Amino acid sequence: MTGIVEEFLALKEGTDADVLAMQVGDFYEFFAEDARLVADELDLKVSEKSSHGSSYPMAGVPLSELTPYLKSLVERGYTVAVAEQRGSDDTTREITRKATPGTLLEATGADARYLVSVVRDGDAWGLAAVDVTTGAFHVTEVTGERTALAELGRFDPEEVLPGPDVRDDEGVLDALREDTDATLTVHATDAFAPGRATHRVREQFGEGTLDAIGVAPEGAGARAAGAALDYVEETGVGVLASLTRVQAYEADDHVALDPTTRRNLELTGTMHGDRAGSLAATLDHTVTSMGARRLEAWLLRPVQDRAEVARRHDCVAALAGDALERDAVRETLDGAYDLERLAARATSGSADPAAIRRVADTLERLPALRERLASSPALADSPLKGILDRVDAEAAEDLRETVDDALADEPGGETGIFARGYDEELDRIAEEHDAVVAFFDSLAERVKAETELSRVTVDRNKTDGYYVQVGHSQTDRVPEHFREVKTLKNSKRYRTDELDEKERALVRLEEERAARERELFEALREEVAAHASLLQDAGRALAEVDALASFAEHASANRWARPELRDDRELDVVAGRHPVVEQTVEFVPNDARLTDDRRFLVVTGPNMSGKSTYMRQTALIVLLAQAGSFVPAESAELGLVDGIYTRVGALDELAQGRSTFMVEMQELSNILHSATEDSLVVLDEVGRGTASDDGISIAWAATEYLHNEVRAKTLFATHYHELTALADRLDGVRNVHVEVDERNDGESVTFLRTVAEGPADRSYGIHVADLAGVPDPVVSRSRDVLAKLRADEAIDVRGGATGGEETEQVVFDLGSGELRTGGGADADADATSGDATAMADADPDPGADASAGAEADGGRAGGEAALDADARAVLEEVRGVDINNTSPLELLQRVNEWQKRMSERDE
């Protein structure tokens, strides 16, 4: 093996994989830098391999244990090439497969694993999404980058193949990196060529497929699909035969959910990245991995088709209405295996006998489930039965019988796979094999009976083969025809001519039996693979019933209501609740009503009072309804929406050069460009990341634009109370607020979490600061500052309000955010900001310039000359504060520090 390392390095140079696993005998070995990488990632032991005078790091795993290591590496984003040993010697190897994040066949669990190919042709975009583990293949063509990125995000891909036009646009690549965690892979440019790509699609799915599904030959969609097929074939995963059907869809078939909305609504993961606490985790009562995958897909891709939404609601109603029948259906499904993934494994040649056994065990559930759905009065009249009618019952039963007749109940290993009676030749070999095995099983007892030996054992190992072992105390009584082969500490091993003959027969029969079983199993596996489409249909049907039963289970347990679909765009939710939050706290329900003349709600109220929860629950109720689920409410009527758009909270993305305010504005821009009058928009604060005047101006103008131009149903939570004046100026704007119970002149405040009509009078931010544990001196000083601001007094940084004395004052005006000097209160009487009356007089045209105000100079030039060095130092520090990127708490702390320094100066 002197050239092993050189062969490894040569094979590695010929692949673009990150890591190479090369078979060497009974192990897969990693050398050089690959060995160090896998050792660090997978905690493998590193040794040294000498070759041609050099020493190389080496790590390895047994052949039978490659899968978990391969899976771990790929799930961490690495591409792993696998080189197999050909022939009986170890001198010929070739790369047979490249495992990538989007082609990892060994994936387990409920999550889909999509590879998405993206092509741009002018303003037309083509996307093809393939899950090699299930055979799912989707293709679409959309217009515009924004729509394309949103569609790509729906699939949450593991790997993306950007076409040449996409690769050449660094801005698009940056967007891909920001919107998804997928690996971006450069695939051969000619695979995206229109003619070649179209040919690949027709070759895979049939000559007339593209025309049949409405995808233009040589168009962007066909190019993306062909490139995806080419890449899957190149990786050698061997699943092309499981890609039996390509499904085309239009972007407007589903509710638009951009990446920001999916994150903000925590559909499949919380803001912290945990699945627990997400909407999908809360609703997931499925009993199969297929069902869990389908449920999550429905939540990520709610539909706009009224008939489909109603069909799902009918199914959920039938299952929710009869607990006994629902339990029976779920019991029948429980334990079913993932037929979609089993079909892919069969076509790839990676399915073992146990996997093929699972195919039959799962197909066996179909007749029982059909009978249950047909015989139950509660279920027979629902669309549930129609789901199973999509599966060819006769073909499914024939395949089940074929597998069932062939395999043993618990097939395993290289032999013992098939049932007796399945193959005459195999039965003959097995009988002879069993007879020889019986000879060895009884040999020890026969030796004892035929000799005077009592301490005799018969065993087998790779070195000595079969042997008879006798203890030292009895070796003087061993028969003459016993040949000694090894002496141990307490015993000796012997062989005989008869034992040699039987062992040769056993080895021959083992090889014959293994070869025959291997031949029969490969034929059986090919038979199952030929029915991949049938298995996928059956898997999808079982998954759908399971997901619907999960919706029904949750609806029944949590008193959810069936939503009523309206023909208009109105939304009327009575006693709505948040589907996740209600699981952990005693929830206060609230109504939500949006109509043509009440389509924009300005939501005001304290921090932590429930504004965000109220708005998110409204969005989730709409999403759940169009996913086919019942909803957490006493009742709900809604017109179907084409998109849900949210902007919630603040997020810094400094690594991408985007501040909190930039992210906020980009999210707002996306909403203003994408939403339509049929959309639902949720805005939780706009303009808070910049100066007050700028922020109010942006929020004001955005409100006018959404109301006048977009006309979408909108919920807008804000602390800019100036915006409540818009309810008097814009016909569709209404004010609602979260109520507060305030007692003892504001000393005791209780957030009631009840939404009522009208605006809130203030935000109670200081109460929230107190609840958060801000030090008492800061809270107390905050109350003092607030009281003086309400009295229209400027704040002296030394601790008091400015009086009427004609003395030099250093004044911090929280209205303008400036530290000024001058002659007392009278000089600053007009230093107020955010005048709602002035803004209400502004032109309501959303195209008008809504920005406000010039900076107040405050007599800075004249006053600074009179300040001493300490005061000027404080003044310079104030000027240097970046208000846009400094938190309110830090600002208060800085003010407190400046106050102390000025007080010490006066002592």
TrEMBL record:
Belongs to the DNA mismatch repair MutS family. GO terms for biological process: mismatch repair. InterPro entries: DNA_mismatch_repair_MutS (IPR005748), DNA_mismatch_repair_MutS-lik_N (IPR007695), DNA_mismatch_repair_MutS/MSH (IPR017261), DNA_mismatch_repair_MutS_C (IPR000432), DNA_mismatch_repair_MutS_clamp (IPR007861), DNA_mismatch_repair_MutS_core (IPR007696), DNA_mismatch_repair_MutS_N (IPR016151), DNA_mismatch_repair_MutS_sf (IPR036187). SMART domains: MUTSac, MUTSd. Gene3D superfamilies: 1.10.1420.10, DNA repair protein MutS, domain I (3.40.1170.10), MutS, connector domain (3.30.420.110), P-loop containing nucleotide triphosphate hydrolases (3.40.50.300). PANTHER family: DNA MISMATCH REPAIR PROTEIN MSH1, MITOCHONDRIAL, DNA MISMATCH REPAIR PROTEIN MUTS FAMILY MEMBER. Pfam families: MutS_I, MutS_II, MutS_III, MutS_IV, MutS_V. Residues 816-865 are annotated as: Disordered. The keyword NAD does not apply. SUPFAM superfamilies: DNA repair protein MutS, domain I, DNA repair protein MutS, domain II, DNA repair protein MutS, domain III, P-loop containing nucleoside triphosphate hydrolases. This protein is involved in the repair of mismatches in DNA. Keywords: ATP-binding, Coiled coil, DNA damage, DNA repair, DNA-binding, Nucleotide-binding. This is DNA mismatch repair protein MutS. It comes from Halarchaeum grantii. Residues 830-855 have a biased composition (Low complexity). Residues 492-527 form a coiled coil. Residues 679-695 form the DNA mismatch repair proteins mutS family domain. It comes from the Archaea. GO terms for molecular function: ATP binding; ATP-dependent DNA damage sensor activity; mismatched DNA binding.
